[in-house]
Design brief:
- The protein has three domains: 2-11 and 82-410, no CATH class; 419-532; 551-692, Coagulation Factor XIII, Chain A, domain 1 (Distorted Sandwich), CATH 2.70.50.60.
- The N and C termini lie far apart (70 Å).
- A five-stranded mixed β-sheet has the order 2-1-3-5-4, with helices on both faces. Strands 6, 7, 8, 10 and 13 form a five-stranded antiparallel β-sheet that branches.
- By secondary structure, it is an alpha+beta fold.
- The protein has helices at residues 2-10, 22-35, 53-65, 69-95, 106-121, 124-131, 138-154, 164-176, 187-197, 204-237, 239-248, 259-272, 294-309, 315-332, 350-371, 376-406, 410-415, 418-428, 449-454, 471-480, 504-514, and strands spanning 436-441, 461-464, 487-493, 516-522, 526-532, 551-552, 557-566, 569-571, 577-578, 584-593, 601-608, 614-621, 639-646, 654-664, 680-688.
- Helix 2 (22-35) packs across helix 3 (53-65) and helix 9 (187-197) packs antiparallel against helix 14.
Length: 694
């Protein structure tokens, strides 16, 4: 089991995964602030607010290792590995003694604990979560430690007297839970419900038992309250931070169902995750696999059934059921936006699920013992040995799945935002130049926390959202904020990185217009274009004025005008345009949609030679500055788009028509110009010289 844990959680952690997810990268940025002396009990400013335990752990790793992929991913991975060990210890404590007599039952304890922890160690979804840098990994670790210390210290292991220091330590761990992850806020209900379960049926005996156990509960609660006091005080003073993330994922956001309907749909989703369907999010899981495979699910549901049967007689089984139910609630009460179950939100329930599978294996061994004259040890071995072999085989299969089927695929690189980490690594290794400015156009977001954490270069570097309407002003403001700018270096992503979505051509076009192109250098994921002589005394815009044609289409969209240019010069569309040696141009178009438009339009830019044959084509989905498609545009607000067109170097010399087709992105059916009833509109005449020379 230890070998499986170390291999799956820690092997090649310095480069696998190859990047940092944007939202999780906020932990790294705040860890850097911690190292600069900025301390908080709750970090509210980034990524909907985050608890501090993972941030301080990342700060410690960063202090020792420097800002790196290893420093970022190591604390959650160690927490996940520690959770497996804590679950093993808890399983031994819960099932290692008889509930009535207190006599040791080592084979039962080893079977349940070993199988539960082993399945957790060899889980593909837990491997994804452990290596993904998620702060949630601290929740199962602290929760399992809390329950283990509480069980050991309360007097449930055959000890006559409780351990008061142990109870205080268990309470301290319980208080620490609130510093891990949002679902930990449900843990107090777990402790309360499990405690109340000992008082059923209520009566004089229950009152006497409550009176006898009250001092232990007070020590536990007092220690928990003392440790949790700072963050609880913060939430009392800032209730909006306590509720902010919960409101973002409230079931009331489901417009297709009532609150009850959405909740029941989630209940079904999260019950099916145990053996039927899994989380489709590739940040959390592989290929939508269920949390438990079929044989694990069989033992899990057997364990659930037997635990329900022995609810009153066996407190360990009762604890696992209450644990499972309470810690599934945070996920069941969250809106999944139709994306299926979310394995990250149920991470607090996973130890209980795996231990229940261990209970199912043990009960199967008992059934075997009842039919054949076996001792406990022989029965446990008869079932446990094959199951142990299955766990080892599963560990090998999970290793193969993760490191051979997943690592190296396009989705692997995309899910980890690996291109951003690669950019930070390359820019960190560039010669020091405080007067240079790096611009990293990035379609998915404006800024990237992972880049902010990893980039340590002297030159300012900015990840910018490649929007159209305010991009010129944004870049102009960035450059003017520096005392002196000797050069601007723009990251231009490779075309095969389809998940980035493009947009960097807008920044390149602006720098061509307001600077002098010096050259490019190719790297693995991108090339870097360098510009100098930046004109900061001008007002940056895409174009000075719009020219014909203006086209009204029968599909409910209109082209209001266009502008074409090269570098900083806008060229007239009313006469042929000689592309010159660069064979590049930018084209701006202004659009407006009709009210009630439901179609998502795309455009096709094409070059046709004098004989009418097509020699070049580029298709682009129409998006507004918020990256909404045409069906969601405001009909009262025109939308500007800008594209950077590169004419192929092998295109034969001659005169070409630059034509535009607007079509339905879903059906590929073109819309036609009103009154003309043709799909193609000629935008300009382009003259291409031999070899790209004038």
């Amino acid at each position: 089991m230890t070998a499986v844990v170390v291999m799956m959680r820690l092997y090649r952690l310095s480069d696998i995964p190859p990047g940092i997810i944007n939202d999780e990268g906020a932990n790294g940025v705040d860890a850097l602030l911690v190292l600069q002396g900025e301390h908080h009990v709750f970090f509210a400013e980034k990524a909907s607010g985050r608890e501090p335990l993972a941030i301080y752990a990342t700060a410690l790793a960063t202090l020792l290792l420097g800002p790196s992929l290893l420093a970022f991913h190591l604390p959650p991975a160690l927490a996940s590995a520690g959770a497996v060990m804590a679950v093993f210890w808890l399983g031994l404590l819960l099932f290692g003694r008889d509930e009535q007599s207190g006599r040791p039952r080592p084979w039962r304890g080893l079977t349940v604990a070993g199988i539960g922890a082993g399945l957790m160690a060899a889980s593909i979804s837990q491997t994804f979560l452990a290596r993904g840098g998620f702060r949630a990994n601290f929740l199962p670790l602290i929760l399992a430690l809390t329950l283990a210390l509480l069980w050991r210290s309360w007097g449930q292991t055959g000890r006559r007297n409780p351990s008061w220091w142990g109870l205080a330590l268990a309470g301290a761990c319980a208080g620490l839970l609130l510093y891990t992850y949002i679902p930990a806020r449900f843990a107090p209900f777990l402790f309360l419900l499990f405690g109340l379960s000992f008082l059923i049926p209520f009566g004089d005996a229950a009152k006497a038992k409550a009176k006898a156990e009250w001092p232990k509960a007070c020590v536990f609660v007092a220690a928990a309250a003392l440790v949790a006091a700072p963050i609880l005080t913060y939430f009392v003073l800032h209730p909006e931070d306590f509720l902010f993330r919960s409101r973002e994922i409230s079931l009331s956001l489901d417009s297709h169902r009532t609150w009850l309907g959405a909740f029941l749909n989630n209940v079904a989703d999260y019950l099916f995750i145990f053996g039927v369907v899994g989380d489709p999010n590739e940040n959390y899981n592989f290929a939508g696999k269920p949390l438990l495979n079929p044989w694990e699910a069989l033992f899990f549901w057997a364990g659930v059934g037997m635990s329900l049967w022995r609810w009153r007689r066996q407190p360990p089984n009762r604890l696992l059921l209450i644990w499972l139910g309470v810690m599934l609630l945070p996920a069941m009460l969250s809106y999944n936006r139709g994306h299926g179950p979310n394995s990250l939100r149920i991470i607090g329930a996973t130890p209980a699920a795996y231990l229940l599978a261990g209970v199912g294996v043990w009960e199967s061994a008992r059934l075997l013992k009842g039919r054949i004259a076996f001792t406990d040890a022989t029965a446990a071995a008869a079932v446990g040995l094959p199951v142990t072999c299955l766990i080892l085989v599963q560990g090998i299969l999970v290793y193969r799945t993760y490191f051979f089927e997943w690592v190296g695929t396009p989705n692997y690189y995309a899910s980890a935002d690996s291109e951003i980490a690669a950019a930070a690594h390359v820019l960190n290794n560039q010669p020091s130049d405080s007067q240079a400015v790096y611009l990293i156009p990035y379609h998915p977001s404006n800024g990237h926390y992972g880049f902010e954490y990893l980039y340590q270069g002297e030159a300012p570097a900015h990840v910018i959202h490649s929007t159209m309407t305010h991009l010129p002003q944004t870049i102009e403001a960035i450059l003017k904020s520096n005392e002196e700018v000797s050069s601007v270096k723009v990251v231009d992503w490779n075309d095969e990185l389809e998940w980035i979505g493009g947009g960097e051509e807008f920044t390149v076009a602006l720098l061509e217009k307001y600077g002098t192109f010096l050259g490019s250098k190719q790297h693995t994921f991108f090339q870097v274009h360098t510009f100098s002589d930046i004109a900061l005394d001008l007002r940056w815009t895409f174009y000075e004025n719009l020219e014909p044609p203006s086209v009204s289409y029968d599909g409910g969209i209109a082209l209001l005008g266009i502008a074409l240019g090269q570098g900083d010069a806008q060229l007239s569309t009313l006469q042929p345009i000689n592309l010159g040696p660069e064979r590049t141009l930018w084209i701006a178009m202004r659009w407006q949609t009709a009210p009630g438009l439901e179609t998502e339009f795309a455009v096709s830019l094409r070059l046709h030679n004098s004989e009418g044959g097509g020699d070049y084509q580029r298709d682009i989905v129409l998006l507004n500055p918020n990256y909404s498609r045409t069906s969601n545009w405001n009909p009262d607000q025109p939308v500007d788009t800008l594209y950077h067109v590169e004419i192929p170097p092998d295109l034969e010399p001659g005169q070409y028509e630059l034509r535009l087709i607007v079509y339905d992105y879903e059906t590929l059916k073109p819309t036609v110009e009103l009154g003309v009833w043709k799909a193609e509109a000629v935008l300009a005449l382009l003259q291409v010289e031999k070899g790209g020379q004038q």
